[in-house]
């Protein structure tokens, strides 16, 4: 019988507090998964790396390593970078079985987490709030699939919470940006704007949004602004990741990029400019898969050229 290990892959942050939250969160999950070894690693900005994490699992005697991305949506990291690290490990550990699990994705329990978080910030799902807008803010990606999933989450949230409007925006990479989202909420007539960070843990971008919130209160003194908490240590988030791990442990993963022809083509392209996965990804993958791949999940501290603002929000009549 194979000895199994689950390796959870956090994104990694320039903020040590965010990385520590990931570690503590996975420690809690490990206590609920006592039958398997559980390890934590990071995609970038922090160690151990994925390669380090796999080496730890194998060194402990694991013959089946399950890799679970602690990532909200399936974009460049989930589709390209993590599978690339697994592919390298397969060449190094030829007798080890690897299974790659799904990211969190659009999940009904995510909506429960969001409902709880906005409730903690003052919006009850039973209230009818005709003058209130919620602005769901994601990290932003150059992958249209990931961006559209956030719009879907916003729509589903609108179905659950009786506010007049739910709008969607991003902190970087793509439009509409958060400033545009706030402006749209006010133009629609909102007298109260609840910013809802669609982030797992704290980090540079959460801190930036907290500072932006102060700026909005100054710029729009007649509008009430609030911001809900990020996902954090919510038990439903633990349940989602344990679910992702369990389905991979029994090889029942419903989405896997192992045999994706577009990913394989990207891997071939990467071979021509191979890099050490212990450092930050700073290249782009220019292939088509009904989306573009890009370093989409980073703490972006630089400006991007943005296309025209397009908003697809919910509004109650």
Automatic annotation (TrEMBL):
Keywords: Lyase, Metal-binding
Metal-binding among keywords: yes
MF (Gene Ontology): lyase activity; metal ion binding
Compositional bias (Basic residues): 274-284
Region of interest: Disordered: 272-317
Biased composition (Basic and acidic residues): 285-304
Alphabetized InterPro entries for the sequence: CbiX-like (IPR002762), Sirohydro_Cobaltochel/CbiX (IPR050963)
Pfam families, per database record: CbiX (PF01903)
Name of protein: Sirohydrochlorin chelatase
Organism: Paenibacillus selenitireducens
């Amino acid at each position: 019988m194979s000895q199994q290990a689950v390796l959870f892959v956090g994104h990694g942050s320039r903020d040590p507090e965010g990385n520590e939250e990931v570690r503590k969160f996975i420690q809690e999950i490990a206590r609920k998964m006592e039958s398997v070894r559980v390890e934590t690693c990071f995609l970038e900005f922090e160690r151990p790396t994925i390669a380090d994490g796999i080496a730890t699992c194998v060194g402990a005697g694991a013959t089946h390593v399950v890799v679970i991305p602690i990532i909200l949506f399936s974009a460049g990291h989930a589709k390209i970078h993590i599978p690339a690290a697994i592919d390298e490990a397969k060449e190094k550990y030829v007798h080890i079985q690897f299974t790659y699990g799904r990211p969190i994705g659009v999940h009904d329990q995510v909506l429960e987490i969001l409902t709880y978080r906005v409730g903690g910030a003052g919006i009850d799902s039973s209230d009818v709030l005709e003058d209130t807008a919620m602005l769901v803010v994601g990290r932003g990606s150059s992958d249209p699939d990931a961006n559209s999933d956030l719009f879907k989450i916003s729509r589903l949230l609108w179905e659950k919470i009786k506010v007049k409007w739910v709008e969607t925006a991003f902190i970087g990479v793509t439009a509409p940006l958060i400033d545009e989202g706030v402006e749209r909420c006010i133009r629609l007539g909102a007298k109260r704007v609840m910013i809802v960070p669609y982030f797992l843990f704290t980090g540079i971008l959460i801190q930036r949004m907290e500072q932006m919130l102060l700026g909005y209160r100054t710029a729009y003194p007649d509008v009430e602004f609030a911001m809900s908490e990020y996902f954090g240590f919510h038990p439903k988030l633990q349940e989602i990741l344990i679910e992702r791990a369990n389905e991979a442990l029994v090889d029942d993963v419903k989405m896997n990029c192992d045999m994706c022809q577009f990913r394989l083509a990207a891997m071939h392209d990467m071979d021509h400019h191979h890099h050490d996965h212990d450092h930050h990804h700073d290249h782009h993958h220019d292939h088509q898969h009904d989306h573009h791949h890009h370093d989409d999940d980073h703490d972006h501290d630089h400006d991007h050229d943005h296309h025209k603002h397009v908003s697809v929000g919910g509004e109650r009549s």
